[in-house]
């Protein structure tokens, strides 16, 4: 309850910050984009993880203004970085199923793109299966509107939910992010490798770009490269970084 009141205030006091985790092309090892991850610099508690406040934000509806702030800040940063270099850098932003339920998500995204001058093609929205499992028709309409804007859609934490296969076919998703629980077990058991290979094939056969998340060592990286996964994220490549450090690795490489 105390955190809820604090979170309301945090939004008006610039206490939220974004960290940026690089996404790496497994063939070139170059950075092709970042995933924006929100943190809360609480005046008393210090840095608070999204695990401790996204749930509160969802339950109270604060996720709507918070989500808009995150999207605006991430787009603003991507435009600033994009202007500096040659590459059209991608920016991925996590959206909650609650943002589909409260208010018009695609209209909000269109407004933020216009306000920040962010090209829609450079924005990726990450969502979990919960978006596909609840309020199906309304959410499907929203997803098609987002696609019509030119935004890329990613299925996050793939493999951890239900009905994955049927929903993947029905929804206009571009990117499949293989949950880190699968990546975690790579390197030992051949069965785990077979599982990841199957997910990669599934993604590819549906025309999706595959991303492996949660890579924590060189063995996992090697296996994923051999399996021809397209993109990778994980602490072994880089932790989520404050904006200034992310800008530095963008200039100097990892
Ligand atoms: O960055 P970290 O690993 O601590 O994130 C924990 C969880 O919080 C992850 O599931 C991540 O997707 C989620 N998260 C981080 N930033 C955001 C955000 O801006 N919006 C939403 N909805 N979830 C986020
Ligand atoms: O749910 P989502 O995939 O958006 O969650 C992203 C979260 O995963 C972030 O909080 C980020 O800090 C975390 N993360 C990123 N790379 C790794 C990793 O290599 N290992 C672990 N344990 N967590 C990671
Ligand atoms: Mn994510
Ligand atoms: Na994930």
TrEMBL record:
Chain ranges of the EAL domain: 1-254
Domain of life: Bacteria
Protein name: EAL domain-containing protein
Portion of the full sequence shown: 673 to 926 of 933
């Amino acid at each position: 309850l105390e955190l809820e009141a604090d979170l309301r205030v945090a939004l008006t006091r610039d206490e939220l910050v974004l960290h940026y985790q690089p996404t790496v092309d497994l063939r070139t090892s170059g950075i092709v984009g970042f995933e924006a991850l929100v943190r809360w610099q609480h005046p008393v508690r210090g840095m608070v993880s999204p695990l401790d406040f996204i749930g509160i934000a969802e339950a109270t509806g604060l996720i709507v203004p918070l989500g808009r702030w995150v999207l605006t800040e991430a787009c603003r940063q991507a435009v600033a970085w994009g202007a500096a270099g040659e590459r059209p850098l991608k920016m991925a932003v996590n959206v909650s199923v609650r943002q589909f339920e409260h208010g018009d998500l695609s209209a909000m995204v269109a407004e933020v793109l216009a306000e920040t001058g962010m090209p829609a093609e450079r924005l990726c929205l990450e969502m979990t299966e919960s978006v596909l499992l609840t309020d199906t028709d309304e959410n499907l309409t929203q997803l098609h509107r987002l696609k019509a804007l030119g935004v890329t859609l990613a299925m996050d934490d793939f493999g951890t939910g239900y009905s994955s296969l049927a929903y993947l076919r029905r929804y206009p998703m571009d990117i499949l992010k293989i949950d880190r629980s699968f990546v975690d077990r790579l390197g030992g058991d051949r069965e785990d490798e077979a599982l990841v290979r199957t997910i990669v094939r599934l993604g590819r056969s549906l025309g999706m770009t595959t991303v492996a998340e949660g890579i924590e060592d060189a063995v996992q990286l090697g296996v994923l490269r051999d399996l021809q996964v397209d993109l990778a994220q994980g602490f072994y490549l880089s932790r989520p970084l404050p904006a200034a450090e992310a800008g530095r690795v963008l200039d100097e490489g990892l």
